[in-house]
Write a structure and sequence with these properties.
Elements lengths: L19 H29 L43 E4 L14 E3 L2 H44 L4 H13 L1
Antiparallel strand pairs: 1-2
């Protein structure tokens, strides 16, 4: 086996060529710069362009210009069925028509039992009366407490009652 000749080996001291990685990096930088310049040019053109204006002419419209004639042919057929319903619930007490009968507007055709509704109405009226009585009682208590407060203020000024009694009357008047 022969030994390799090492004297033929040399170090190249010439200018180093660019590596493929650095070429790609420079290509990317140049591409980004070109894109930024193009975006700036487009933005400048859009911002500096005059706005689009559409001109129109004004016309007065009169009702006679909007007159439309509509002709139609056919038959007018009355509605033969009507659905009835009640606002309240209850048993049917009286029925004043038969199937197929002719009725007029606002004609009473049936009557429902109204005992439940009347009882509810009477209960509501009784509650209103109780509320009115409570209001009257409250107003009377207020008048009485205000009068007691005035009297106790006069008596306190003369020294006939203690301050605690006046404070009690004041609290009662505030409560009323």
């Amino acid at each position: 086996m022969s030994s390799p000749d090492l004297s033929k080996l040399r170090i190249d001291r010439g200018p180093a060529g660019a590596s493929p990685g650095s070429r790609r990096r420079w290509l990317r930088v140049v591409l980004v710069i070109i894109l930024l310049i193009a975006a700036g040019i487009l933005a400048e053109r859009r911002l500096s362009a005059p706005p689009a204006v559409e001109t129109v002419s004004v016309v007065n419209a009169w009702p006679a210009q909007n007159y439309t004639v509509l002709n139609a042919s056919g038959y007018v057929v009355p509605q033969r069925n009507a659905a009835l319903s009640s606002k309240g619930q209850g048993r049917l007490e009286w029925l004043g028509v038969l199937e197929g009968s002719r009725v007029k507007a606002n004609e009473i055709i049936a009557r429902l039992e109204s005992r439940d509704v009347r009882a509810t109405l009477e209960q509501a009226e009784a509650q209103v009366n109780v509320a009115r009585a409570n209001l009257e009682q409250g107003l009377a208590e207020e008048r009485d407490s205000r009068a007691n407060l005035r009297r106790s203020a006069e008596l306190l000024a003369r020294g006939f009652i203690a301050g605690a009694q006046h404070d009690t009357n004041l609290a009662r008047a505030d409560k009323a």
